[in-house]
Amino acid sequence: MRNILGSIKRKVSSSSGSGTQNNSRAYPMKKDPYGTPSRTGTMKSQYDPPPPAPVPAPLNQGTAPPAYSPVSNAFPVPQIAVSSPQDQTADDPYAFLSSFDTIFLIDDSGSMAGSRWRETQEALEAITPICTSHDADGIDILFLNNPENPYHRNVSSPATVREIFSSVRPRGGTPTGQRLDSILRPYIRQCEQRGPEAVKPLNLIVITDGEPSDDVEAPLISCAKKLDKMDAPAWQIGIQFFQVGRDEGARAHLRALDDELAEIAGTELRDMVDTVPFKGAEGEHLSADGILKVVLGAVNRRLDRKRSKDLHR
Known about the structure:
Layout: H1 2-26, E1 101-106, H2 115-134, E2 139-143, H3 158-167, H4 176-194, E3 202-208, H5 217-229, E4 237-243, H6 248-259, H7 261-265, E5 273-277, H8 288-311
Parallel strand pairs: 1-2, 1-3, 3-4, 4-5
Helix pairs in contact: 2-3, 2-8, 4-5
């Protein structure tokens, strides 16, 4: 019995020793997943303090952006001066044109053909840029016989004047009164509806060579009476007749419109008509400067008369 027990103990002891050696070879030591420092100190833990943040290199002073500073009105707005006719200097004699609508009524009767037609066209070609420089609306060109055309309104270039005159052929009579009435009646209606102060004053320039074939006095007298009734300014409407040619009958008739209109009407009337006979001597021709000087003179006379009446009230 003792021999059997002793044999069993020796076998158990021998198995335990060999199992320990095999276990050390089969199961090598695992690395600590948490980074526990080893004896050699080469492994770091996540609990170690973080390294210092890197210091950026200094900016190049030559390329550094400027410091911000608020600037008021960085983009200055230009001041726009709005001038009225009264603000214009004496250096510009035609500044008054900015205060008026300018209409040219051209006699296109048969007697205007030839040199008179060319002179009238050249005068308007020269006048147009002067008027347009003071009034962006340009000028209106109407005719006694030729029907109205929208293309003839707001003319602003000499080229357009040439095109208009080349498209109109002088022929027919001289219905000046009828044509004046068709222009003045709608204008007066506007003044009555809106008040004269709300309607731009009108300069109506008539260029003709002959005596009218109809009644001119009636529409002029009617217009003047209505303006007086509205107490419209003295310069609300100005009508200038320019005679081209040497027709003595036409000259006498136009002079009567200027000097005797109130006498014909049998009552006191405002002075709104001026006539200028063009003698047409050798070498003379109708000029833009001559026309505008007459228009300017008529406007100034009316202004002077208005001021004189105001002073004596």
